[in-house]
Amino acid sequence: MEKREKFDIMIKTKASQDQIASYLVKAVLGLRDRENKSESVRLFGGGSAIPNVILVAEIIRARYKGLSSIVTLENMEKEINENGQVNKISIPAIRIKLTCKPTQEELNQAFILNQFLNQSNLLLNSSNLEVFSKGVLILQGF
Predict the structure, then answer these.
(1) Spatial distance between the Cα atoms of 35 and 33, rounded to a whole number of angstroms
(2) Residues 6+ apart with CB under 8 A from 47
(3) CATH for 8-101?
(4) Of the four listed, 13, 43, 110, 113, which is most buried by Cβ atoms within 10 Å?
């Protein structure tokens, strides 16, 4: 798990339309903030919040041309107390970094993936798929 930064937005499971709107406003303000040197925001949510994370990311991407989405799939550990007994469970989670400036490392991973896909004869539209490495996927132009 990465450390939280100023432009990280944690999206909750039970989000109303007003909360979705507030996540959208935070993301847009983060992308426009002059202090944000990386020109990116990161959206994060786990379990049943995953569709809300994807929804917010796709709405922002539709409004900002040239914005890349770097998707990381993760597992969050959560402790549940049942009858006085603490159990740890693993919950799927997603982190989507919306950025105008993908790093060189991310671009290098895209080249490696394209080589792999060419050797594996997988049919994917490489203009939309940029990076897939260790659970990381960059999508552009959907």
Answers:
(1) 5
(2) 13, 76, 91, 92, 93
(3) 3.30.110.20
(4) 43
